[in-house]
Amino acid sequence: MTHYSAFSLLKNALSGHKNWREQWPDAQPKAEYDVIIVGAGGHGLGAAYYLAKEHGITNVAVIDKGWLGGGNTGRNTTIIRSNYLYDESAKLYDHALDLWEDLSQDLNYNVMYSKRGVMMLAHNVHDIQSFKRHIHSNRLNGVDNRWLTPEEAKEFCPPLNISKDARYPVMGAALQMRAGTARHDAVAWGYARAAAARGVDIIQNCPVIAIRRGPDGAVQGVDTAKGFIKAKKVAVSTAGNTSVVMQSAGLRMPLESYPLQALVSEPVKPVFPCVVMSNTVHAYISQSDKGELVIGSGTDQYVSYSQRGGLPLIEHTVAAICEVFPIFSRMRMLRKWGGIVDVTPDRSPILGKLPVKGLYVNCGWGTGGFKATPGAGHLLAWTVAKDEPHPINAPFTLERFTTGRLIDEAAAAAVAH
Amino acid sequence: MLLIHCPYCDDTLPEPEFAYAGEAHIARPADPMALSDEEWKNFLFIRSNPRGTHYERWRHIHGCGRFFNAIRDTVSDKFVMTYRAGEPRPNLDALKEAAE
Ligand SMILES: Cc1cc2nc3c(=O)[nH]c(=O)nc-3n(C[C@H](O)[C@H](O)[C@H](O)COP(=O)(O)OP(=O)(O)OC[C@H]3O[C@@H](n4cnc5c(N)ncnc54)[C@H](O)[C@@H]3O)c2cc1C
Ligand SMILES: [Zn+2]
Predict the structure, then answer these.
(1) Best substitution site from A189, A350, A367 to test ligand 1's pocket, by max atoms within 8 Å of Cβ?
(2) C or N: which end of chain B has fewer Cβ atoms within 10 Å?
(3) Where do the H-state alpha helices sit in A141-178?
(4) Is the dihedral of CA A392, A395, A396, A397 positive or negative?
């Protein structure tokens, strides 16, 4: 693997950028692997990387039905934060935040993690009470989060409309300074390159059709469009398609898949310094380094795999953005798209072992799993390598839906982010 | 935007008039006290979430206000049909044969 540095950039600039090598090879499947990871999103690729780096397991394949990072990883609005309510979640998301801190150095790949602050707007008394409760709970867990008055919010984000007669008056805000954004594609590419450099095969355009189980019930491998591939351990990290993949192993999941949409504007000069989210009006916004405003909405109401979603939702979201930020009311939007998010009943992920020998799952991140990418990959790798969960993901079992030990983050994750 | 046929109003109307209400034909347990934890999980949380034909409930919330059922393809988002609440789950294969 070529080491990227200021020097290599300079050297390649002098030769007209004609000598850059491919970042990772496109592999064809071998007959057998120690571990197969289904789904080459950020989570699956991250898991492959940490399996190789931290557990010395390099005979690993990551298989995707499309191109790597073409699922929700490449479709999300890249908000990263960790101010969730419960202890279990605080640990889970803060673990990811710790890994984000020096991910670029670790991968030798600039993932453009930018701690520009995420501000959540309170528009009514209920918002104020619920955000303050979150702030107190976060403080107890050592998670950074603080309360801002409307004036302080405006100072932090000048385009914000805090006038008293606004349709959605701003009554305050919760601000996590350590939160921000990262470049989504770079996260997938960085993990892919670093995993491939350690011997991991990345197999694209190869749908996994079924997980094959032997007479004893244990996993034997996966049937794919390129034939059967053997493995004693299979980890499924397929986001919105998890119910379908699991069905093939005879497991029914507590998941429903919904379209989640986002849109971007034409690029403009830097105008928006942070990330702003509003659960109540169901919209969130930031500005990419290219200059586009990146805007996201809530999920469509119905189960779907169409990766499209309906226009009424976009209309609602854009109307809310124009109300809160009148400065953007004449911005032109360039494009919109949808991704399929896998939502659990308690809005917390399922990350761990399954009642099938050799089968592991990482799913249910719903509308908010990009922020968790390094953490999810790291914990999935641990769980697969040791055949037992790491203490951080131990509470996020499938069994919690039977025992009733839910981790109800519906309030923290009710809007898509 | 989806256009949805309300079987009560007998009219095909835009999606914002309707509220989605989850998977259809999940019957409330007749004897809740007799259910095991596993059965409760299946009733409360497990959903078929298919990539393809989905039986689901909708409510004509800004119209007649009534619940009804629908069959929709979750890949194309196209409705196959809608029918009144309480009617048995239609047999899709039989419907297809009848159409041919
Ligand atoms: C519009 C939108 C905005 C979002 N905004 C945010 C945000 O701001 N912050 C945040 O934290 N999260 C956000 N999310 C959620 C976030 O994108 C996801 O939770 C996260 O990216 C999931 O990563 P993943 O690697 O698990 O899934 P994915 O990137 O979806 O990867 C799963 C992969 O599995 C593959 N796959 C599926 N079925 C098969 C099969 N049968 N065989 C082989 N491969 C298969 C898919 O092709 C896909 O590449 C958003 C999502 C969307 C759609
Ligand atoms: Zn009606």
Answers:
(1) A367
(2) C
(3) 150-156
(4) positive
pLDDT digits (tens, 9 = 90+) for A308-362: 999 999 999 999 999 899 999 999 999 999 999 999 999 999 999 999 999 999 9
Looking at residues B8-13, what average pLDDT do you find? 98
C-beta of residue B32 within 8 angstroms of C-beta of residue B15: no
Residue among B42, B49, B56 whose CB faces A257 most closely: B49
DSSP state of A114: B
* Chain B residues with CB within 8 Å of chain A CB: 1-2, 14-16, 19-20, 23, 37-38, 40-42, 44-51, 54, 56, 72, 74-77
- Confirm if A212 and A220 have CB atoms less than 8 A apart: yes
Return the sign of the alpha-carbon dihedral for residues A337, A341, A345, A351: negative
Tokens found for residue A410: 């519906």
Domain of B14 in residue numbering reads as 3-28+36-99
- What's the predicted TM-score (pTM) here? 0.96
- Would you say A330 and A372 are in contact if contact means Cβ atoms under 8 Å apart? no
> A153 pLDDT exceeds 90?
yes
Here the ipTM equals 0.95
Residue A212 CB neighbours (<10 A):
17
CATH code of residue B20:
3.30.2270.10
The domain tally of chain B equals 1
Tell me which DSSP letter residue A49 carries. H
Collapsing DSSP to helix, strand or coil, A324 comes out as: helix
**Looking at CA atoms only, how far is residue B76 from chain A in angstroms?**
6
Q: What letter does residue A307 receive in the DSSP assignment?
A: S
Q: What angle do CA A411, A89, A398 make, to 5 degrees?
A: 95
Task: Characterise B5 by phi-psi region: left (phi > 0), alpha (psi -120 to 50), beta (else).
Answer: beta
- Burial, A49: exposed, middle or buried (Cβ in 10 Å; 0-12, 13-18, 19+)? buried
Pairing of strands A333-343, A256-265: antiparallel
Q: Is A337 exposed, middle or buried (0-12, 13-18, 19+ CB in 10 A)?
A: middle
CA distances from B6 to A276, A301, A302, B14, B39 (A): 39, 17, 16, 10, 33
Instruction: Give the number of beta-carbon pairs within 8 Å between A and B.
Output: 69
pLDDT at A283: 86
Which DSSP helix (H) or strand (E) runs through A242? helix A242-247
